[in-house]
Amino acid sequence: MSAANDALVPAAADELSNFARARRRFLGNPAAVIGVLIVISIIAAAVLAPHIAPYPNHAGSFVDFRSRHQAPTLLHLLGTDNVGRDILSRVLFGYRVSLLLVIGVLGIAVPLGVVLGLLAGYFGGRVDTAIMWLTNVMLAVPPLVMALAIAAVLTPNLVNSMIAVTAVWWTWHCRLVYRVVKSVVAEDFVEAARVAGASHLHILFREILPNCTAAISVKTTLDAGFVILFGASLSFLGLGVQPPTPDLGTMVSAGAQFLPEKWWEAVMPGLAVLYAILGFNLLGDGLRDMLDVEI
Amino acid sequence: MTAAPILEIKGLNVGFTGYGRTSQVLHDIDLTVETGQRAAIIGESGSGKTVTMKTVIGTLPHPAGRVMGGSVRFAGQELLTLGRREREKLKGTDISIVHQDPLASFNPVFTIGEHLDDVLRFADRRLGTASSAGDRRQRIEATLRQVQLKEPERVLRSYPFQLSGGMRQRVLIAMALMHRPKLLIADEPGTALDVTTQDEILRLLNQLVAEERLTLIMVTHNLAVVRQTADYVYVMQAGRIVEHGAVRDIFSAPRMPYTQRLLEAIPPLYGPRVERRQARGSEAVVRASEVVKRFVAPKRWLELAPPAVTAVQNANLTICRGDIFGIAGESGSGKTTVARMVMGLASPTSGRIEIDGKSVEAWRKDPAFRRRIQIVYQNPASSLNPKRTVAETLSVPLAFSGAIEKSRRPQRIRELLERVELPASFAERYPHQLSGGQKQRVAIARALAVEPEIIVLDEPTSALDVSVQKTVIDLLLRLREELGLTYIFISHDLSLMRNFCTRIAVMFRGEICEQGTTEEVFDSPRHPYTCALIASVPVLTDAEERAKPSVTLEERRAVLASTTQ
């Protein structure tokens, strides 16, 4: 008994700081740590692509018919494509496009969705009806169809595929924030702030928004993977980034013609997409456990 | 008293493990309950009373909770070394528990009948005695009659939300009684309910103990409840039993200062200990005349008259400067609605509310209005933003009232914290780093920030422990002295109001049924509802019990909502 007692710490000294607790939860979760490592590796690959790619010039319209359709070897770790370009080099550059898409889309869709969700949830009434009506209509259209329609009307390029994806993406954030705001607004501290004389602007962005950030950051992280997939789908259908810019979706699409014999041409860029989605999802799940939010 | 002990706890130590560390929450608990005894475990929240009972019943959280030594014997049988299966057989059969929160204890998608049948079926299965549906039904109905529910068939068909809180609490008791337990543990039964309902639940428990020869362990933080429902009491503090003895002895001569503090924290209803507060002046600050508030549901298409509820009916009030004006009543009686209308947070359907001779409607457009009247909410966990530090919370009224320039704000925040007796270092803390009482002090500081004349106190102490309640009330009294404040105090705790308010209005089903000085209302209540309400308040001494207005069963029935049908 006494031996067990010696190991005890008094209850008061037991309190861990918030940060320490979050760090413990994070480090205790192997999936989350792997997610972080994957995401870091992708960002590093995209940023350092010109320096680490074995054949940086293969990112452009390089053609070398002598080495076309080569299976993975030590010279070309992921093989070469139908015009002899090194697939590994193109994948590394492809991540640049993917990450640009993520930053562009989420950089616009998240703030837009968050602000609309805040307004709808806080003001209620007609503002609520109008914003949520628009959101639900947008959600009713299958996102890929919507994006296809927009991408088809505009000329296919990176910026336009960003616009297409953004147009459907904000709705999810709007719905998420709307739900969180509805529950936060019922708390007494919102009315207390109003009684203290605070403006709507203050209540929305200083009192309510901080209570939504955990949910938003988890959702945004999980989204990053799906935006990459969505962008790749558009490119696969020929409505995204145009050749010769290396893009994972375009590469899968081009390689698909040579399946199943030249499998690496479609599978390797496909695996690259999978790797990215896996990384962002693991990170998102880890964040969710750490911040203790429900999505 | 030579009866064999039914429960004998010796040297029990329990710890909780988390994040790789263990902290001990129970220290050498010794506790003996004899067959047929009514025992009570009392202590503030966090004192370990619930953990003790969870150890007995075998529901310590797994794997965090860990028994680190000691013994728990039930009817001579050691429970801690008992096999899982054998232990399960006792749960809900020989040892039963009545939980605190009657709503959270039910699954909203199942009927009461399904709940009870499940409990019975699984208990039968554990015991290895299969039972038929018809047989179970009969036993369930018999048990519901035992807890005095008038129409068992209807109750069984109902969903939890269709029953009142009092009825749900009765069903919970029935659930615990179903297998004719030898030992019944009651974890703060009825504390979440109105005082009149709680009174009925306590009477029921007493009656059951007498009729069924049950052994009862009552877990509670309220000593006045203990006097009604226990013979023997264990006082717990910080995981230790600090004092135990017969209720009479503990109440007349508590040995430990902690027990003494708990006793003193309960405000008396009658007798020499009552603190009397005199009204200051007669200058009216708040005047309400013929105020009516109807809540109407939004009109639906093709609906001629949407459903409506009258929350407040013809209310007339005059609150004078320096008053501590209490509005008493049960939940749903309209007291909060009145306060919200005075605050200008809701507008009356008809009638007029004036503050300093100017109607609230007119005041609302005036930015100076907020500097006149402020509010302290019931639950500080909800009224303080968890993502903002104390300083950030306090700076909101300072920034928006424009009373103080930005550079002087930190100074003012320090002053406010000092006013509510908190150290200046708390400014950088987040609400979760504060205790309940400290949070409520911050909420009071926020209300004081704009130097209001009137503060609405919406049950400011009901979420706090009794001993903490006393310190907050003392603070409020001191602030009133120093700043000449007027309080509007909403509460259902009559004994607290007795010692705190100068004037009281009692609300009954939306109407103010009685109004007067505190002495008038308590010494000679006129309305039968006021009498029933006062009679339901648990008190500490027999003298107070005798001083309460006497109410016959018929009179009670006439004014109180039934909890039996």
Structure report:
The complex is a heterodimer of chains A (295) and B (565). With 295 residues, chain A is mainly alpha-helical. Chain A has a single domain (2-291), classed as MetI-like (MetI-like fold, Orthogonal Bundle), CATH 1.10.3720. Chain A has twelve helices and no strands. Chain A is elongated and about 75 Å long. Chain B is globular, with a radius of gyration of 26 Å. In chain B, the strands form four sheets. Chain B has a six-stranded mixed beta sheet, with helices on both faces. With 565 residues, chain B is an alpha/beta fold. Chain A binds chain B through residues 1, 4-5, 7-11, 14, 16, 21, 24, 187-189, 191-193, 195-199, 202, 206-207, 210-211, and chain B through 13, 15, 19, 21-25, 68-69, 343, 345, 367, 370, 374-375, 377-379, 382-388, 396-397, 400-401, 443, 446, 449-450.
Structural features:
heterodimer; A: 295 residues; mainly alpha; MetI-like fold; 12 helices; 71% helix; 0% strand; disordered N terminus; B: 565 residues; alpha/beta; six-stranded mixed sheet; 22 helices; 38% helix
Beta content of chain A? under 5%
Approximate strand percentage of chain B: 15-25%
- Binned, the helix content of chain A reads over 70%
Low-confidence stretches of chain A: 1-14
Question: What is the second-level CATH architecture of chain A?
Answer: Orthogonal Bundle
Shape call of chain B: globular
Q: Looking at CATH, which topology of chain A would you report?
A: MetI-like fold
Q: Estimate the mean pLDDT confidence of chain B.
A: 88
- In which order are the strands of the major sheet of chain B placed? 6-7-8-3-9-10
Strands of chain B, total number:
20
Number of DSSP helical runs of chain A: 12
Backbone CA Rg of chain B: 26 Å
Order of helices and strands of chain A: HHHHHHHHHHHH
Oligomer: heterodimer
Largest sheet of chain B: 6 strands, mixed
Specify the number of helices of chain B: 22
* Uncertain segments of chain B: none
Mean pLDDT of chain A, as a whole number?
A: 82
Structural class of chain A: mainly alpha
CATH class category name of chain A:
Mainly Alpha
